[in-house]
Amino acid sequence: MALDSEIKAQLNQYLQLLESDVVLKVNAGSDSVSEEMLALVNELASMSSRITVEQAQLERTPSFSVNRVGEDTGVTFAGVPLGHEFTSLVLALLQVSGRAPKVDQNVIDQIKAIKGEYRFESYISLSCHNCPDVVQALNVLSVLNPNISHTMIDGAAFKEEVESKDILAVPTVYLNGESFGSGRMSLEEILAKLGTGPDASELSDKEPFDVLVVGGGPAGASAAIYAARKGIRTGIVAERFGGQVMDTLGIENFISVKYTEGPKLAASLEEHAKEYGIDIMNLQRAKRLTKKDLIELELENGAVLKSKTVIVSTGARWRNVGVPGEQEFKNKGVAYCPHCDGPLFAGKHVAVIGGGNSGIEAAIDLAGIVSHVTVLEFMPELKADSVLQKRLFSLPNVTVLKNVQTKEITGTDKVNGITYVERDTGAEQHIELQGVFVLIGLVPNTDWLGENVERNRMGEIVVDRQGATTLPGVFAAGDCTNSAYKQIIISMGSGATASLGAFDYLIRNY
């Protein structure tokens, strides 16, 4: 397997940045994945005199580790890190060679202070756009702390291992042989799970803000940047910076950018926000909002932040179908991201609940991987665009059930079927299958606000043309509001509007 000329040209530039010699220790067999891996590591060695390859006994075949000379660094790739993981490989080479990771110094100090042995394993698929964040974070831990090691495992190359552990969602992380977590996790989230995050008193001691933004998606980032540019004290509280954009793969309608991907856009938003010295408080969940002399925001960890104005931009989340079995079998056959988890269901029968654009796009995507897809739509007709429906109905391994209501997702230790009711006859039917993908739209993240601000029957915050809510000094923007359309570019615009509205409120009231 040869790298294409464009990738080689990019790689050549990166390999010039290696700061010291790197040894790739390789354990290969005679299988096709081993051959592909050998071709990759040999090509890397041929492109830089700083890279050498040597045979070694590693835990898995095929795999290779990335090491400093005379030292096991603890960074291992089991499989061939191409696709979305190619960047993880490049960063591992650079960081092992001595280039500092792009991580805040306080985070580096936290990592170096970790005591005890930590052996991480991450199970990924090369088509998963959430997985590289986890792989790269765990690699940084391994590079910076000699007591920590990490092996990335491509589920497609180690099917038996994945099936023996009943892994049905990626990324899934094990620590010292025990389940640690699944889904996207940032470096800060991993450190928090290890017990090294900031405590409530650090946050409560902060001076009051002029503008405090709740939520770090496109609306929140835009609002904070607009506020900070006015020279006023600005903070962002976010459960995870980037919000739902982090779960978005291809973005082709962000005007002036022909194509980008969600995690890349989220990283750019965070970088832009940091340029203005905005106080970003990540991994914090809002609990309650009250108006006193200032507006007070209570967090789940007990901290209380104060501000003259607040902009709520908490976005939306995937809507649950709300039937027995959905929560019980989440990550055990119930999934919400076909790009991430689809490859784990190769050759199996799956269902997609939802006949809108996202559901039908998922069904088309999955049909190329699984043996059969059954689409369940509650309404008498599909809601997806006609071009998507035409493509769907051209596929030989798709069944579409319309006018049906999902009643239960069944299983024992993992999903084994789905039960639905035909809405016109009332007849109950059951299908045996191994996976269920739920794609039925979004629900705003506004439950925590209670009766403090007016919300419509969908739970969306009602705002005026300045982005103001019914509570003076509190503004809102993005997918958590009653905006007509939920789009990244519209969220950014509404964030700017709410920020300008908040600034106007400040100059009139303070």
TrEMBL record:
Domain FAD/NAD(P)-binding stretches: 209-493
InterPro entries: AhpF_NTD_C, AhpF_NTD_N, Alkyl_hydroperoxide_Rdtase_suF, FAD/NAD-bd_sf, FAD/NAD-binding_dom, Ferredoxin-NADP_redctase_2, Pyr_nucl-diS_OxRdtase_2_AS, Thioredoxin-like_fold
Molecular function as annotated in GO: oxidoreductase activity
First and last residue of the signal peptide: none
EC number: 1.8.1.-
Keyword annotations: Disulfide bond, FAD, Flavoprotein, NAD, Oxidoreductase, Redox-active center
Residue ranges constituting the Thioredoxin-like fold domain according to the UniProt record: 125-193
Cofactor: FAD
Quaternary structure and partners: Homodimer.
Protein name, per record: Alkyl hydroperoxide reductase subunit F
